[in-house]
Amino acid sequence: MSQGRVSQTLSGLVTAGLVTRRADPGRSHWSVTDWDDLADWWLGRYPGPGGITTYWFGFASAPEQARTAVTALRGAGVPVAVSGDVAADALAAWRRPLRAVVYAAPSGRSTPVDLSTVGLTPSGPDEATLELTVPADPGVWAAPDDLDDRVALPLADGVQVLWDLQRSPASDTDQAVAALRALLRTRFRAATGQTR
Questions:
Q1: Average pLDDT over all residues of the chain
Q2: CB 18 within 8 A of CB 2
Q3: Which of 88, 106, 181, 185 has the most C-beta neighbours closer than 10 Å?
Q4: What one-character-per-residue DSSP string does 9-64 give?
Q5: Is position 93 within any domain?
Q6: DSSP 3-state assignment of 106?
């Protein structure tokens, strides 16, 4: 992203009252005015990760399917991140995950990894229990500082997990989103020292 685009984006966030510029002795920095307002703004405007998505069905639990896909993709040398229901359950358990969302980095392979070799069947989006995406958005990947050593699976960025969780077909998605938002808000405040 260019410096001009960063400035343009920050200007829009300032106008919306979502960030402010603070001057500390010797330097200035940007500060979020309210985490929830900024999260709402982003969630309402994010167009999704783009890229190419395939849908898969399996009989194992969603976490087990995610582990199986991660193992197969890593075995092929493809970096991966888990998102959606399964990642939210690993971070802020609320309910049994129904669908796994897995992001795979572009591999440069001439043929994609075939998940049917690990017991999954290609399906349509409505019946899928696993969604595999090679995203166009590089922002789906968690920053190295955000990786949680207590979680066995490689997870996507927290707000990406939140966005994917909102798309879950479960009837209690709103409650699961609220639980994950509370965790992400707490982590943000702890990392920044901010209270809002």
A1: 88
A2: no
A3: 88
A4: HHHHHHHTTSEEEEEETTEEEEEES-HHHHHHHHHHH-----SEEEEEE-SS-HHH
A5: yes
A6: coil
The DSSP symbol for 139 reads G
CA distances from 62 to 32, 44, 100, 154 (A): 35, 27, 5, 15
- Spatial contact of 104 and 83, defined as CB atoms under 8 Å apart: no
Percentage of residues in the chain having pLDDT higher than 90: 58
Report how far residue 93's alpha carbon sits from residue 74's, in angstroms, rounded to the nearest whole number. Answer: 25
The tokens 């959606």 sit on which residue? 84
Query: What are residue 54's phi and psi, to 5 degrees?
Result: -120, 155
Q: What is the pLDDT of residues 51-79, one digit of tens each?
A: 999 999 999 999 999 999 999 999 988 99
Q: What is the pLDDT of residue 184?
A: 93
Between 160 and 12, where is the model more confident?
160
Does the residue 4 lie in any domain? no
Q: Which domain holds residue 159?
A: 52-171
* 125 within domain boundaries: yes
Model-level pTM? 0.87
Domain count, the chain: 1
Residue 178 lies in a domain: no
